[in-house]
């Protein structure tokens, strides 16, 4: 399933843009103080959105792992991202918050407990997935939220079409250690790319805010490494990586489309290693404790 779901992302993002043009009660209004929560992939999308919303001047926005959200802090709204709508930490948090703050869930499945656990719900059932590893639901959520912030998603969709069709960056599939870097909203995307590599291909993968990479992690980089930059790079970093023998990867695409390429790399490496990316070891489609 995962290959189909990856290839479907441009069409799903288009539907998200159309949906964002309609009234969607529960999505944050400008000026609201918002916390966005999720687990795993959904946490990284929460982080990307939080940085974008603050950057767009729409109000203070924090992102938390649902298990670590500070329940006592005052927000106008808590937005919970959960493809499955069944993740225990999400449901427990929404239960604790009930009656103290407005809550919104963005989910893929309208038949799940999150539908009644949150005050408002946005359902992206057209982007729901059969795979354990999340790809299109996560990026479609982000496309919806970007469109709701009135950011340009049309060029991201054009780049996404390229990302599903183009060759992978030359040489990257020959490397065995992967480091993903981002700045601002792309820090979350870098984390998500590294998670895809771990989940689907069992690769050794790390992620950092780009400038943090020079504060230690670059020590492990060598000719086995690929260093993948989401968005513009800090000055001089590319040269520093090349000096280590590491392969520098910086697709000339919208960062969310660059994430599609990273998803494809994960699936390509899984296939090369004889792994089945639809059913990764030790993982389930949602974590129910
Ligand atoms: C969150 C999640 C997935 C992960 C794994 C376990 O699920 O952490 O991101 O890939 O399958 O669950 P959800 O709350 O978004 O359904």
TrEMBL record:
<dbReference type="InterPro" id="IPR035490">
    <property type="entry name" value="GlmS/FrlB_SIS"/>
</dbReference>
<feature type="domain" description="SIS">
    <location>
        <begin position="24"/>
        <end position="161"/>
    </location>
</feature>
<keyword id="KW-0677">Repeat</keyword>
<dbReference type="InterPro" id="IPR046348">
    <property type="entry name" value="SIS_dom_sf"/>
</dbReference>
<dbReference type="InterPro" id="IPR035466">
    <property type="entry name" value="GlmS/AgaS_SIS"/>
</dbReference>
<dbReference type="InterPro" id="IPR001347">
    <property type="entry name" value="SIS_dom"/>
</dbReference>
<dbReference type="GO" id="GO:1901135">
    <property type="term" value="P:carbohydrate derivative metabolic process"/>
</dbReference>
<dbReference type="GO" id="GO:0097367">
    <property type="term" value="F:carbohydrate derivative binding"/>
</dbReference>
<protein>
    <recommendedName>
        <fullName>SIS domain-containing protein</fullName>
    </recommendedName>
</protein>
């Amino acid at each position: 399933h995962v290959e189909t779901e990856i290839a479907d992302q441009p069409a799903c993002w288009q539907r998200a843009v159309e949906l964002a043009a309609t009234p969607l009660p529960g999505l944050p209004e400008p000026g609201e103080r918002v916390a966005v929560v999720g687990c795993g992939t959904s946490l990284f999308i929460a982080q990307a959105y939080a940085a974008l919303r603050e950057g767009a001047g729409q109000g203070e926005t924090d992102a938390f792992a649902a298990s670590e959200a500070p329940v006592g802090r005052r927000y106008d709204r808590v937005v919970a991202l959960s493809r499955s709508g069944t993740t225990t930490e999400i449901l427990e948090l929404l239960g604790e918050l009930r009656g103290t703050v407005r809550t919104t869930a963005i989910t893929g499945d309208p038949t799940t407990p999150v539908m009644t656990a949150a005050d408002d719900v946005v359902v992206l059932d057209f982007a729901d997935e059969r795979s354990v590893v999340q790809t299109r639901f996560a990026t479609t959520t982000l496309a919806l939220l970007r469109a709701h912030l009135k950011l340009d998603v049309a060029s991201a969709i054009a780049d996404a079409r390229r990302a599903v069709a183009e060759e992978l960056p030359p040489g990257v599939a020959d490397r065995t250690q992967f480091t993903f870097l981002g700045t601002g909203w792309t820090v979350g995307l870098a984390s998500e790319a590294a998670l895809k590599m771990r989940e689907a291909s069992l690769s050794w993968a790390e992620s950092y805010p780009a400038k943090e990479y020079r504060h230690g992690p670059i020590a492990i980089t060598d000719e086995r490494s690929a260093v993948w930059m989401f968005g513009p790079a800090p000055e001089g970093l590319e040269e520093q990586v090349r000096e280590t023998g590491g392969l520098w990867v910086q697709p000339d695409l919208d960062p969310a489309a660059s994430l599609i390429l990273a998803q494809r790399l994960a699936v390509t490496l899984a296939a090369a290693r004889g792994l089945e990316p639809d059913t990764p070891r030790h993982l389930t489609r949602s974590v129910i404790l």
